[in-house]
Inverse folding.
């Protein structure tokens, strides 16, 4: 099971990095989203995929007696999903605003903050 | 729930029932909880924009007092640990203040306090209604949380807290150039934090724990079998990107000059240093051996960052963009200490970080005051400030000296320590790079001073009336700059206590047994 998931994680990373290498913001945003999902799967796989028993400890002991499923990755992934989802929303709005304001979604042509051909600072009085 | 505890239960459950937390220990949470609470209060009163500044300044004042008290306690009594919900480590999320984290939190809170005062004049009612102060509060909660947490996944969460708050601050005003800068800043920072999360996932897969002290204990057992070098290299990538180390620094000069000047100042002062803090924590407390393997690589990254950063500053004519490149150059100097890894080198890095938080904030605020006095940020246009604003000139000279690493200000001593450490470590090229970058910084900032302050303004006759008009309007800004200059001068003329503090922080990093023992009191170190 882990090996299948590992291959899937690799595919996710490959696709997301390919998308992020683009100069167009919308592809980058999609790439970042896939990147976040790839991470979630990584954490899930890293926590070991066990199906045996839910991690419920009987009343009279304080540690699990058998091999139980690992509940922690789900807590971590839940946190990561919430964060990456809110970032995705922000980035989507930002990319759309940038397209409206700057008239392009090509990051090479977004030169308002760093205009081309500014020249050198004064070299003397 | 616990009603059916039988006599068979093992006594580990007893370990989860402990006495109440001593009142003084709650100090550990003040630098994080107070900004969160104040941010919530500010959201409640978001329509009464006149109240915002007063609430924020009071909250930051208390936060600074709390962080300073925490620092005093940590220095006198050793690391302080608190685990949330009393789920004892490694299960609960620990907050863990050692000398390093408490020092960073105290300096950061001080600078945020100064920034909140400066913002009274810099941020208008529209900016406040848009939420400047709540964003600032939450950003500081994230920064202080990152400095104080003892759990690596929690560190990721605090990173995200301050990154998303910084997005809000960065686009406050919604100008074209801000949206341009924010696009690059947002995407690259998000990629960096995601790489941090990937690495944390891999670390968890290898070790099965997220508590930093527990990781530090378990890493040696795994050194032969686990992919620790991969994890360390990915952490270097992620935190190097956050700290704006070459070649991952291009988001910083693209964005840091676009927001309101007080936002630029706090970003330049604080955010990159969180990356440096995370590098120090991960590479010294958690993975010292892996740092040793990569020390040569880190050293070359340090050299490239400091030299290329300052060359960028030399080619700019906008004062804010010059400041941005000087921030990058300073990151290189701090990485030099990490590369050396000796007690002296690390103490130099910690002291340089303290100095850099203060001086970079002051440099951006100075740029803001220069803009107010002369109407421009461009060196082509600003001139004659020496005659029109003599007091500003005096403070500017102090800041230029400090940022260049010249006596009698704070930049000198950390560089002395780093050069000494590099000489001891037989890294002559590192010595050369530190000295060269200091020399080039002197030229870059000396030119700012010569052009903006010494050069006569074209209309020198009208200047006197300008002075009376601008001199009064700036008194708040002057007060903030003077407030930041006090610790800068203190470090410069009486460095002894600060050096001792930095050495204590470095010693705590090099020998984490105190840190581990504070989290696991029962464990042999």
């Amino acid at each position: 099971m882990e090996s299948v998931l590992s291959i899937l994680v690799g595919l996710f990373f490959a696709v997301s990095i390919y998308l992020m290498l683009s100069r167009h913001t919308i592809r980058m945003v999609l790439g970042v989203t896939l990147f976040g999902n790839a991470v979630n799967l990584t954490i899930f796989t890293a926590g070991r995929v066990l199906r045996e028993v839910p991690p419920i400890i009987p009343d009279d002991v304080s540690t699990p007696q058998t091999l139980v499923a690992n509940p922690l990755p789900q807590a971590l992934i839940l946190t990561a999903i919430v964060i990456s989802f809110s970032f995705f929303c922000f980035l989507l709005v930002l990319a759309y605003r940038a397209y409206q304001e700057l008239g392009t979604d090509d990051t090479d042509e977004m030169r308002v903050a760093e205009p081309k051909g500014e020249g050198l600072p004064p070299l003397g009085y | 729930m616990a009603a059916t505890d039988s006599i068979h239960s093992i006594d580990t459950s007893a370990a989860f029932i402990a006495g109440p937390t001593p009142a003084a220990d709650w100090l550990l949470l003040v630098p994080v909880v107070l900004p969160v609470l104040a941010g919530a209060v500010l959201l409640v009163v978001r329509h009464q924009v006149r109240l915002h500044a007063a609430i924020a300044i009071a909250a930051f004042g208390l936060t600074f007092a709390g962080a300073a008290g925490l620092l005093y306690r940590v220095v006198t009594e050793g690391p302080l640990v608190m685990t949330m919900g009393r789920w004892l480590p490694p299960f609960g999320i620990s907050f863990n203040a050692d000398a390093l984290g408490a020092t960073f939190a105290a300096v950061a809170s001080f600078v945020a306090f100064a920034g909140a005062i400066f913002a009274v004049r810099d941020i208008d009612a529209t900016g406040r209604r848009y939420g400047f102060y709540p964003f600032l509060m939450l950003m500081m909660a994230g920064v202080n949380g990152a400095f104080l947490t003892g759990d690596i996944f929690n560190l990721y969460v605090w990173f995200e807290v301050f990154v998303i708050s910084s997005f809000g601050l960065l686009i406050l005003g919604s100008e074209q150039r801000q949206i341009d800068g924010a696009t690059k800043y947002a995407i690259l920072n998000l990629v960096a934090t995601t790489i941090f999360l990937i690495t944390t996932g891999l670390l968890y897969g290898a070790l099965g724990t997220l508590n930093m002290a527990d990781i530090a204990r378990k890493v040696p057992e795994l050194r032969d079998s686990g992919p620790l070098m991969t994890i360390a290299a990915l952490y270097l990538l992620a935190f190097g990107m956050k700290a704006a180390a070459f070649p991952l620094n291009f988001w910083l000069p693209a964005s840091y000059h676009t927001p309101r000047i007080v936002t630029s100042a706090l970003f330049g002062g604080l955010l990159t240093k969180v990356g440096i803090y995370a590098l120090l924590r991960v590479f010294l407390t958690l993975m010292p051996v892996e740092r040793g393997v990569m020390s040569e690589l880190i050293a070359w990254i340090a050299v490239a960052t400091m030299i290329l950063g300052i060359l960028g500053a030399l080619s700019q004519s906008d004062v804010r963009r010059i400041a941005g490149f000087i921030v990058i150059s300073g990151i290189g100097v701090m990485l030099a200490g990490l590369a050396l890894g000796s007690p002296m080198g690390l103490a130099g890095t910690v002291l340089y970080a303290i100095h850099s938080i203060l001086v970079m904030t002051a440099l951006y605020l100075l740029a803001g005051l220069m803009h107010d006095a002369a109407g421009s940020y461009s060196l082509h246009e600003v001139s004659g400030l020496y005659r029109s604003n003599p007091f500003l000139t005096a403070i500017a000279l102090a800041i230029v000296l400090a940022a260049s690493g010249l006596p009698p200000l704070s930049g000198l001593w950390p560089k002395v320590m780093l050069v000494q450490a590099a000489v001891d470590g037989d890294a002559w090229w590192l010595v050369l790079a530190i000295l060269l970058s200091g020399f080039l910084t002197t030229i870059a900032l000396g030119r700012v001073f010569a052009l903006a302050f010494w050069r006569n303004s074209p209309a020198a006759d009208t200047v006197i009336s300008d002075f009376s008009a601008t001199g009064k309007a700036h008194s708040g800004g002057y007060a903030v700059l003077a407030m930041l200059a006090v610790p800068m001068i203190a470090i410069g003329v009486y460095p002894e206590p600060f050096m001792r503090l930095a050495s204590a922080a470095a010693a705590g990093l090099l020998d984490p047994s105190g840190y581990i023992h504070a989290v696991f009191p029962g464990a042999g170190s």
